[in-house]
Amino acid sequence: MLIPMVNLKVQYEIMKDEIDRAIKEVLEDGNFILGPSVEKLEKEIASYLGAKYAVGLASGTDALHMALLACGVRKGQDVITTPFTFVSTVETIVSVGATPIFVDIDPRTYNIAPEKIEELIETKTSFNKKEGILINKENGNQIRAILPVHLYGQSADIEHIVSLCSKYNLLLIEDCAQAFGSEYKGRKVGTFGEIGCLSFFPSKNLGCYGDGGMIITDSEDLADKIRILRNHGSKVKYYYIEMGFNSRLDEVQAAILGVKLRKIDKFNELRRKNASLYNDCLRGVDLTTPYEDEHVKHVYHQYTIRTRYRDRITKCLGNEGIASAVYYPIPLHQQPVFKRLGFNTGDLKNSESASLEVLSLPMYPELTEEEIQRVCKTIKDAMSTT
Ligand SMILES: Cc1ncc(COP(=O)(O)O)c(C=O)c1O
């Protein structure tokens, strides 16, 4: 039997009646764009995560893009972020005209390391206290924001990042695409900065059946700006007050997400249980299982091990019909498209070495104990031949 990375079919089978009913209601209602399901979902997600406002968008990438635009991040400004992430995090910084400044990760959590942000600030910037502006001495730009990613479902060291943002008057935009429901000291990620960005890509912890995204914020002004941006720059039909986009979460996706949101705690708990089964099964094996920060509630979007024997393990898993994946094989500072940013191999060693050794194993709520044991046995067999 094949074991995929995620199994959306089995999840649909479990929720079929509720999902089908929710879709049917939208079809019968005949209202497909910016209708009652999106409005309801926005309220429910804002309340679930503990934010005042939520705005549904067409994707997580758009959520990042519009968050940056609404915050006024632009050309001549820098944004501190991680190179160990999906490309959206960084392509959106570039698309608003700003410059990404990569800072290396903590090798245990794979999240941006606040100590390294501090190091960068101390060595490469000057802070104009009077104006509250942090200047990058190398390019003369104002450093405007920090954009951390809560990778694999685990919150970054957000308290430390928040303290740096307030010390240096920086905006905080959180990329929560992989961490819906994850917490830091009991508070949901996405609520620590100006804006939290969510993705509902099908394989995400809360995923729809197409593309979808959302921003959450406590600022009425930012929520308002993003509502205008997502709808062609208009608030009133056929009256355009600024350049905008077509980036609306649609009613069918919102209705599906409404059903899944009611089960998200259960799904995330099952992911945590599966992670713990993996940990037990892999104890004593010569590889590194995921590190959980003591302040964090990890929601295991990915269960990612670290091993020197990645190729061998991947091959053996593949031979047994077991999927595995590398997130991410090349850090963004080494990607051809971002070479012009001036980072070289060796500049961000933790990200570079992680990219050579990380391996994500199948992870979804419906994964069975037997399947986890099969994955682990295959890994152990692969290791015994090393
Ligand atoms: C860390 C991260 N940021 C942003 C995104 C972009 O989300 P989307 O695919 O919904 O545009 C993703 C996921 O695909 C992601 O994993």
In short:
The chain has 386 residues and is α/β, with parallel strands linked by helices. The chain has helices at 8-29, 36-49, 60-70, 88-95, 114-124, 158-167, 220-230, 251-261, 264-282, 310-319, 349-357, 369-384; strands at 53-57, 77-81, 99-102, 125-128, 133-136, 142-147, 171-175, 183-184, 187-188, 195-199, 213-217, 234-236, 239-240, 296-297, 303-306, 358-361. The chain folds into two domains: 8-103 and 110-261, Type I PLP-dependent aspartate aminotransferase-like (Major domain) (Aspartate Aminotransferase, domain 2, 3-Layer(aba) Sandwich); 264-384, Alpha-Beta Complex (Aspartate Aminotransferase, domain 1), CATH 3.90.1150.
Q: What tags apply to this protein structure?
A:
3-stranded antiparallel sheet, 39% helix, globular, Aspartate Aminotransferase, domain 1, 16 strands, 386 residues, Aspartate Aminotransferase, domain 2, alpha/beta, 2 domains, binds pyridoxal-5'-phosphate, 12 helices, 9-stranded mixed sheet
